[in-house]
Amino acid sequence: MDLFSQLILVISVTSFLSFQWLFHRVSPWVSTRVSPGFLRLADKQKVEWNSRTVSTLHALLVGLFCLYILLFDDAINEDPVWGDPTLVKINVGVTTGYLISDLLLIFYYWKAIGDKFFVVHHLAALYAYYYVLGHGMLPYFANFRLLAEFSTPCVNQRWFFEVLGYPKSSRPNIANGMAMAVVFFLVRIAVMPLYYSRMWSVYGTEAFYQVPRGGCAAWIISSICLDVMNVMWMHKIARGCYKVMRSARQHKVGTQGNGKTD
């Protein structure tokens, strides 16, 4: 194992340990001081709260680094299959540590946060990242997938509002719901044509044929699996957003009606 591979291994292990520490120690300590409502939650809710807090931190860290790479890393933009994967490997190493940490927590606290879709999502991502970290292939596509993390904070915030008892028709909830729907659509759904057109552009090239079958399977099958789940989640988010806005509109009309009667 070369020196850089050892560094990536250290980054992944450090990431795993850091996210475990954030879940077990930092999140409970900070949450009790920032949000008094945390103390009133049931034990299962506290587990999910801490899990979502860590998820948000990971999303912000990795998402911003991902955007930087996408904008300024010329090597992977010019050669999306075999471009210099140095920065992408660092980012994927952090995400790998997080995914393994989260999988461990999901299995250990299955009654609180167990979800088969998240297990499939994490395993599909880890399978694909193995080829990025182990062989340095497909850095552009691996990094592009991480853009999806930008939707995570809004999704988590929706749950925080719900568990703290914020009415669905409240302004913070509506604002977050709208932001969640828009950001989720932009970074997970709207980018699909760009992602798959870039994939199609390298199909049949010499660089493409240098990718082993396992790498192609990880690339194509994982992408399809993740995007099928993204479409399913987008459908749920859109329905939820529509219901909240409809409820808020009816409440507003009812309030105005009562005002006229008076």
From TrEMBL:
Q: Which domain of life is it from?
A: Eukaryota
Q: Matching Pfam families, A to Z?
A: TRAM_LAG1_CLN8
Q: Does the keyword Hydrolase apply?
A: no
Q: Name the InterPro entries on file.
A: TLC-dom, TLCD
- Entry keyword annotation includes Membrane: yes
Q: Which residues form the TLC domain?
A: 44-246
Look up and give the membrane topology term.
Multi-pass membrane protein
Q: Which residues cross the membrane?
A: 6-23, 54-72, 92-110, 117-142, 174-196
Sorted alphabetically, the keyword list is:
Membrane, Transmembrane, Transmembrane helix
Coarse class of the primary localization is membrane
State the name under which the record lists this protein: TLC domain-containing protein 4-B-like
Give the coiled coil ranges: none
Query: Where does the UniProt annotation locate this protein?
Result: Membrane
